[in-house]
Amino acid sequence: MSTVFMTHALRPFPGLITKDGRAPSGERLTQMLDILEQIWAAGFDEGPIDPAADVEDFWEDAVRIATTYRAALDAGLAIELRSSAKCWSSEDLACRMGPLRINEHGGYHGADAFEELLAGLPLDMTGRTFAVCTYDSESVTLGADDLSQHLTTLAAAGHTAAVVKVAGHKQGIARIELDPDTRVINRRLHDAFDWTMVRLDGVRSAFLVSPWIEITYEYRVFVVDGIPVTGAGCIEEYTPLDHSGSGPFDPAVRLHRGNSVAATVNSDITDDSRTVRTHLAAATPVIAHMAARGLRTYVVDMAYVPARHDSVVVEFNSISNAGLYACDAQALARALIQTEHKGYYEYTPTRVR
Prior knowledge:
Helix content is 30%, strand content 19%. With 353 residues, it is α+β, with helices and mostly antiparallel strands. The protein has three domains: 3-97, no CATH class; 129-211, no CATH class; 214-338, D-amino Acid Aminotransferase, Chain A, domain 1, CATH 3.30.470. It has a four-stranded antiparallel β-sheet. Strands 9-8-12-13 form a four-stranded antiparallel β-sheet, sandwiched between helices. Strand 5 (161-166) and strand 6 form a beta hairpin. The longest helix has 20 residues, at 55-74. It is globular. The N and C termini lie far apart (46 Å). 38% of the residues are buried.
């Protein structure tokens, strides 16, 4: 019998409560109890109740375990719990399910070239340029990829603001108001990122930069072996417990995310299947483009741009660590169980000081 390796970990258990702190009832209570039974069967224990625990964090972890367990049983596979302290071979990763631990090193996982690939996508897929940049406060000669210089170039081209994101890890994203003076730019970067600017000073290709444009209805598409298998709006407070609709692509979307980049406050949540279909249509050539470059399992975030009347790519992420939102997690687990393309790509680290 084939084996699936599981390396999940559960974050602290908030107890049987909903996001608003109330006791669950009806279908929600039934869902929660069913998930707990599945994680117990898989060999996990939710642990003691922590009143300060994050409700969404715990149930996202629990859903990953429960859906993997069910998918493995349905496929007739054995389950083996594995420590994250080992170096994984390509053969191991073909049997692995679950998020990566931040303390894992070596092996054939944990890094990808998504920033570089995003910067190389055709403009009709992105709606604006992307550039991978370096900030080096001690450099005398500014290179073409210098972060401050690139931002002043965007200002000279008529852009009023840019989005700057820490590349490789989800450690920061900010809207930076542009200015022709690099000293003003640098001050704004330090105000936005604080000690991250010091920590990444001189680190090659540490920042991803694009001109700011209005994006709406952000939506995450989960791609497994080159096929979109499920999707959900980028709604932070949603987990797979909130999945609705008759198909794998959840219809709930939010006009603006209150992340101080798209907007300062969250918009209301609405069901909009028409916008979801627009996202999926725009994602189709992007998925084909990525597959031609050997990347077949990942998540791609799409957004609708009112000025273009179309959807564009916002970012790519590793499928193993991407937030699930209200996706159909069972459909995702089934797809991952059945494929060897789980998104752990061979790589050679390129970011050096």
